[in-house]
Structures are given as C-alpha cells and as structure tokens.
Amino acid sequence: FDKTDTTVGDKTYVISGSDGDSTSLGVRIFDESTVQWVHPVVLGTKPRACKGHSAVLLNKDRILIIKKGASPDDCTWFLELDTQYVRDQKTMCGGNTEVVAWSKGMRGNVEKPVVISGPSGVGKGTLIAKLMKEYPSLFGFSVSHTTRAPRGMEKDGVHYHFTEKSVMEKEIKDGKFLEHASVHGNLYGTSVEAVEVVADEGKRCILDIDVQGARSVRRSPLKAIFIFIRPPSMEDLEKRLWARGTETEEQISKRLENAKAELEQGETSGLFDHSLKNDNLEECYQRLKEHLGLDRSVGAASRPVSGGIDLPVDHSVSKLDNKIIIDCGTPELEKASKNLILDVSCLNGGAPGRTRGLDLYAIDSFSDGLKEGR
Ligand SMILES: Nc1nc2c(ncn2[C@@H]2O[C@H](COP(=O)(O)OP(=O)(O)O)[C@@H](O)[C@H]2O)c(=O)[nH]1
Ligand SMILES: Nc1ncnc2c1ncn2[C@@H]1O[C@H](COP(=O)(O)OP(=O)(O)O)[C@@H](O)[C@H]1O
C-alpha cells in the first residue's frame, strides 16, 4: 500500500497512491489541533501514482517525494507546503483554505531566464530576434498568451498563443500562469508551461513582458535577470511605432500614453537589474550581450546539465543536512553497495512548475571517498 505520513507542527500530510483518483498521488491533511481531516486545494501537475514512494521533509516547507520504479524523468517530485508560492496562493484563496502545490524535481540547472521590458516600439522584439538568431541553441523564447489579434506575419504558437479572453481567464484561475497583466487594453500572460518547455530543452528563457509582468515575475519563484530597454526620446519612440506600421493611430496614442508610466517605473522602481538605451541598435545589442555574459569567447555561457535521475526500483531513504541518502539495498558479499546521494542544497524554481538543481552522486561504501556518479 503506497502511503507516507509527514508531520509538520499540528499537521500530518498523508500522501498516497490510492486516494480518490488512482492515477495520481493524492494528498490529505490530518490536523491535530482540530482533530479533523482536511482536503487541501492541490495546485500544479500531480505526479502519477506509482509502486511506492519515499517522503522526506525539507526545510519544513516542502516534502521531497522519491518514487519507486519510476522512469528517470518522473521519479523526484516536491510537494510544497509553505513556500512563498503556496503562501501567496493561500492569500488569494482568502487565507483559510489549505493549499499545497506539486513541482517536478529536475537534475541540474539552466541559466537564469532573462526578462526584457520596455515601452512598445522601443525595440525589444528586434533585440530578442537578433539574440535568438545569433545563439539559436542557447536561447528560447517564452511564448506568451494574449487576447489581442495577430498581426500580419505573426504565427499562433510562435509569436504568441492567441487566445479567447474567457479561456485565458479560466486558465489563470486554475493557476496555469506565472504572471498576467492587462496591457494596452488586452490580456497578456506567461504560462508556467511557456517557461518550462524552454528550460526543459536546456535553453535560457527570454521573456518579453511589460513592467507589471516583470514585477509579478520578481515575486514569483522564477529567479531571473531583469533588463529594461528605454528609447532615446519619446519622439524616437513615436517615430518607431509609426515606422513599424502595425497599429492604428488610436492604438499608437494608447501605447505612447502607457510608455510614459512605464519609463517612469522602469527608471525608478529598482525592479530592473540593468537599463539600456536603445539608440543605435548595434551598440544596444552589444551591451545586452555583455549583460548576458556573451561578450566573452563564444560558448562562454555554459551548457546546463538537466534531465532525469536513474534510481533503483527499491530503496530506502534517510536525510543528513542537505543530502538525501538513498540506500539501494544490502550489498552482496564482496560487492560494494552502490548507495546514492541526492544533494538538495542548490534548489531553485519550484511550484507550479519545476524544482531544479537536484544533484546525484554514487558512493561506494567500501571506499572512503565520494565518487561522482553519472
Ligand atoms: N505581462 C505581460 N506582458 C506581456 C506578455 N507578452 C507581451 N507582453 C507585453 O505586452 C506589450 C504589448 O506587446 P505586443 O502586443 O506584442 O506589442 P508591441 O510591444 O508593440 O510589440 C509589450 O510591452 C510586451 O512586453 C506577457 O506574457 N505578460
Ligand atoms: N535602435 C533602433 N533604431 C531605430 N529603429 C529601431 C531600433 N530598434 C528597433 N527599431 C525599429 O522600431 C520598431 C519597433 O521595434 P520592435 O522591436 O517591434 O519594438 P517592441 O518589440 O519593443 O515593441 C521596428 O520597426 C524596429 O525595426
């Protein structure tokens, strides 16, 4: 029977593979203070049920789940109990509802995503296109959802996911978005999936979002670099919008009106790590590359290690500081037992997407030293 109990304060989190729907792991909470069972709101993608699992409490705010006999890309998960994301979601639910959130554990890290903001027409799209063209294997674009109509050359799923307002609002409610904002009268948003698909390819994600979106991402579990692009002057900005020729006069006025507020916030809020003036395009592009560490020799941006973990079907676990020791069974005589150590000291990201930075080592119990595994 696949079930674990993890107690934090008055609450015991019971995770089991045979609760309610049997296709995914279920969560129930027993509250000692009220002597009652609670069914929490469960956010994020739930892990599929499995032959068995181990649960290890980390930092008193999340439970690491190690599944038995699961495929390498599906064996480590985190149930977040009291992380910033969960606390924010609890507040949104009115504060009295129990909320927990699933996040999938991934090995290795990818470089921090890059958030690029700035007023409409400043040249964000142009700069991003240059970057993606020069470094197609290093960068991937976060494809946002929007309720605005596609422009002539824009393709659904490439430039944006063009969406109905009601559909998008429902998905926002379901917790599928990292951030969303109303910009120039339309709804825009970055789905959790949009960022994860890029990271899963081992690429650094670029987000082209407005200042409100940047502020939301700052508060989210996604650790990113924030870059603001500003025009040489409002006159230049207006000229560029007219030259692009994709908006009506009315839409251009709205964009210029919003630009004033965005420029003010971009310059003064302390939200951005860097602010770049896009006067001469080539010069601005070179400075952008410097901030991303691409001015050094080609390939300076290290390629990330990511992917799953190959764990044995059966094991038991114990915890020592930031290391989870996975005991893979009694060694046969004269054979070293191949125990594994899962290092959780460098975790980042988190619900409702992926928790990255898990590291795995093999230890040979017959030798003294640690030996690096696969
Ligand atoms: N918050 C947020 N803003 C977005 C998103 N996608 C695009 N934007 C912003 O929405 C604004 C309008 O974008 P767009 O319609 O492509 O027009 P353009 O900026 O004039 O090219 C820009 O400031 C974008 O940075 C998103 O997913 N979230
Ligand atoms: N440094 C620059 N100097 C002059 N024109 C520029 C510069 N950068 C971009 N542009 C032009 O300005 C227009 C708006 O650029 P775009 O990349 O679409 O802006 P954004 O994505 O910020 O709305 C485009 O026609 C583009 O070719």
From TrEMBL:
Keywords: ATP-binding, Kinase, Nucleotide-binding, Transferase. SMART domains: GuKc. The keyword Metal-binding does not apply. NCBIfam families: guanyl_kin. This is guanylate kinase. The keyword ATP-binding applies. Its EC number is 2.7.4.8. Belongs to the guanylate kinase family. PROSITE patterns: GUANYLATE_KINASE_1 (PS00856), GUANYLATE_KINASE_2 (PS50052). One of its GO terms (molecular function) is GMP kinase activity. GO terms for cellular component: cytosol. It catalyses: GMP + ATP = GDP + ADP. Residues 111-293 form the Guanylate kinase-like domain.
